[in-house]
Amino acid sequence: MKKLQMVDLQSQYERIQPEIDKAVIDVIRSAAFINGPQVKQFQTSLEKYLDVKHVIPCANGTDALQIAMMGLGLEQGDEVITVDFTFAATVEVIALLKLTPVLIDVEKDTFNLDIDALKKAITPKTKAIVPVHLFGLCANMEAIMEVAKAHNLYVIEDTAQGIGADFTFSDGTKKKVGTIGDVGTTSFFPSKNLGCYGDGGAIFTNNDDLAHVLRGIVNHGMYQRYYHDVVGVNSRLDSLQAAILDIKLPHLETYNKKRREAARYYNQGFKNNPNILTPTTKKCGDICDTCDCHVFHQYTLQITNGKRDALHQHLNELQIPNAIYYPVALHKQKAYEDERYKESDFTVTNELVKNVISLPMHTELEKEQQDYIIKTIVDFVGN
Ligand SMILES: *Cc1c(COP(=O)(O)O)cnc(C)c1O
């Protein structure tokens, strides 16, 4: 059996090695490391793939969130609602910009923003909502957009884990996540579904004026060289990363399909186990190869009989890669504690941090590897 890994980036690279190697050498030979033609090329490719008017490449997914919030003109004291169960970058940039983060609970079955909790959290100071398409599953964008419209709020979609997922509206239309709200952000961190070989990120919007503002902010607030109209940052996607991404982008649909197939195989293996909750999609209640609303950035189980920590240790001893995303609710992190929060408002997150465990999930997983992982877990947890 091939060595188990949480993410297998070497094998993925080997499949596209000649193209990647050539593109990388071309950039080095051209010496156009910053703002080379590859950046514009990738920007155009991604605009086409996502069917969005503007892609603004930047240095990483955290910057993308920060720049999006700067571009919307949010001001000190404005409240920004996001989820208690996500990677900290989302809340970090809200705090960094001196906006007021308001964390809310998520849904147990989807790990995504809870609409009732969202409605409850809105105050006259609320200016924006940041849904996160956690683990690759679309948040309920139709409901979120309705709430946002009713209260005149911006929606910033954190698509770092969800790139390529399709959200289907009740009238049947489909849109790529990240292109539904006012602005979407993503990360090209190597292990993300569309990963480069270093850091990278991007912002998406259909709003021409906002796109213009964002393009200035990523580049020191300059629209004309050495004329600084607004306070900006230095956040660039470099030419090497753009060249690599432009080669990987055409494979993204296949990559996401492979992840879905692997998720379906796991789900089958854990089926009907009373101690294990497998991930589901809202659309069909199960995972099928056609569930394009989930791109499985992570495959995350809930262990419901209190054995999660013991399982984590058992898998570690057997050197089966696994991870706890996330072990601490954000409202309990030292940096983000706030006396306004009540534990009774976070019952789901408080339970998830105790029960979740993520398994190896990538484009190169083999059935033999999955069989071994499934058997080890079922033998340990019981069925
Ligand atoms: C990875 C990630 C980010 C940050 O992306 P970086 O490129 O690492 O800065 C933000 N939000 C979520 C949900 C993520 O998973």
UniProtKB/TrEMBL annotation:
A single GO molecular function term of this UniProt record = transaminase activity
Q: What Pfam families is this protein classified in?
A: DegT_DnrJ_EryC1
* UniProt keyword list: Aminotransferase, Pyridoxal phosphate, Transferase
Q: Which domain of life is it from?
A: Bacteria
Which family does the record claim for this protein? Belongs to the DegT/DnrJ/EryC1 family.
Record-given protein name: DegT/DnrJ/EryC1/StrS family aminotransferase
